[in-house]
Amino acid sequence: QGVVLMDPSEDPDEILRANRSREKTFVFDMVFDHRATQEEVYASTTKSLIEGVISGYNATIFAYGPTGAGKTYTMLGTDSEPGIYVRTLDDLFKALEATTEEMDYTVSMSYLEIYNEVIRDLLNPSSGFLDLREDSRGSIQIAGITEFSTTNAQEIMQLLTKGNKQRTQEPTAANKTSSRSHAVLQVTVTQKSQRRATSEEMRIGKLFMVDLAGSERAAQTQNRGKRMKEGAHINRSLLALANCINALSEKGGSRAQFVNFRDSKLTRLLKDSLGGNSRTVMIAHISPASTSFEESRMTLIYAYRAKNIKTQV
C-alpha cells in the first residue's frame, strides 16, 4: 500500500545533504504496479460504488496525474481492455436487471468536456458552449446538455468512443495525443416503484466519472502561444480543485476553511462529489520515469491530501 519515491538527482557523495535523503514514502488505500490489469484496478476501486448508486447515493471517480501517465487509458481503455467507464456501466446494468420486478428504472448519461473554462457537449458538439445553472434545490444543472437514455452497455461504449473523438486533443512534447480538457461522464440512475402508492418515492443516484486533463509544467511540454494559454487554463482548474481539496481536508481542523467551489467550472460541477453527499474515489497516476520526478511528487502529495477528506454520505 505504499509508494516510495526516490530522487533521481541524488548524489551519494554530496556532503551537505548526506543526512537528508529526499526519499519519500506515501501510504494509500491501494497501490498498483505496472502489472495490474484493468480488471484489478476496477475491482478494487470502483466496483463497490455501484451498489450505492443503485440505492440512491452519489459516487465520483477521478483520474488524476501528469500527461502520459495513463488517465484516459484507465477511464476509457481500449477495445480489448475496456476501462472503468465501460466496466462500471456493464455492472450497473447487470445489477439493475437483477433488481426486483416492481421497480422502474431509467439510466441517462451525458458526456461533456471542460476546455479553457467552457463546457462542450461531446455527444452533440454542434450545440456550442453550455452554461452551468443552479436549480431551486441548489443542485447544479447544465443547461441544454443532451442526455441519452439506454439500457445497453454496448451502445454506451459506441457513444463514448464517438464522444472521445470529439475531445480536444493536441500533440504536446509530453504526449502526442494529449487530452487538453477535463472529460466528465455523468450517469443518472432514477428508480421508482411500479406500485402506485401514495407515498411514491424516487431514488436518484448520480455517478460522475472524470478524466482530468494532464497536470504538467509548461517547461515539460515546451508549449508556446495557444498551447501555453490552454495549459494555464488546465492548471487553473486543477489548482482550484487542489484548493478545494486542501480546504476540505483541513475541515474540522484548527481553523475553519472556506471552500471556494466557484473558482472554476470543474469544481462547481463537482461540488457535491467533493464535499457533499457522495462516495469519491481518486485514482492518481504517476510515471516511473526519472524525468517526471517533480510531476510524480506533486501528484503523490496531491493524492495524499485528498485522502484526508471525509465526505458525509
TrEMBL record:
Keywords: ATP-binding, Cell projection, Cilium, Coiled coil, Cytoplasm, Cytoskeleton, Microtubule, Motor protein, Nucleotide-binding. Its main location: other. ATP binds at G65, P66, T67, G68, A69, G70, K71, T72. It is found in: Cell projection, Cilium; Cytoplasm, Cytoskeleton. One of its GO terms (molecular function) is microtubule binding. Residues 163-182 are annotated as: Disordered. GO terms for cellular component: cilium; microtubule. One of its GO terms (biological process) is microtubule-based movement. Residues 169-182 have a biased composition (Polar residues). Belongs to the TRAFAC class myosin-kinesin ATPase superfamily. Kinesin family. Plus end-directed microtubule-dependent motor protein that regulates the length of motile cilia by mediating depolymerization of microtubules at ciliary tips. This is Kinesin-like protein. It comes from Centropus unirufus. The lineage of its organism: Eukaryota, Metazoa, Chordata, Craniata, Vertebrata.
